[in-house]
Amino acid sequence: xxxxxxxxxxxxxxxxxxxxxxxxxxxxxxxxxxxxxxxxxxxxxxxxxxxxxxxxxxxxxxxxxxxxxxxxxxxxxxxxxxxxxxxxxxxxxxxxxxxxxxxxxxxxxxxxxxxxxxxxxxxxxxxxxxxxxxxxxxxxxxxxxxxxxxxxxxxxxxxxxxxxxxxxxxxxxx
Length: 174
Known about the structure:
Helix content is 25%, strand content 29%. It has five helices and six strands; from the N terminus they run αββαβαβββαα.
C-alpha cells in the first residue's frame, strides 16, 4: 500500500510539471491522425489535470489525464454524456524508483516518471462528426506523428467497457 501511495504522489507531482512543459521535441502539430482526422490540440500540455493512474500489465506506466475547459466543466458538474467540444488527453511515462527516496527510507518507495511511453492519446467529443463511434473521435501520436490507421481502428472497441460513463475510463480526481 505504501508503494502505491508513493507512486500516486509521484504521478501528481509529475502531472503538474508536465502541464507546464512545451510540446515534446519532434511534435509536428500540423499532422492529422487517420480515421478521425484529429490534430494535436494546441496547448494541450497546459490543460488541467483530471486524474492520474498507474497502469499495470502490458502497458505498465504512469499516466496523467488532462482535459480542456469543456472537459473539466463537465467533470466538475457530473455531466454525462460529455458535451461536444470535450477533449481528453492521456500522457504516459515509464517509471523507476527515486534513488534519493530509497536512500532515505532503506527501500524503493517513491517512483518517478522517466521516459514518455506509448505516445499521447486524445478523445474528442463531437456527436455528429463521430456518430459512428458514439460521438467520440480518437487520436494517438508517437513523437508527434500520428499512429497508423490500424491503431486508431482499435480505440472505440476498448472503450465499449465504459459505455455507462460515456466511453471514458478515467474518473475525476478533484
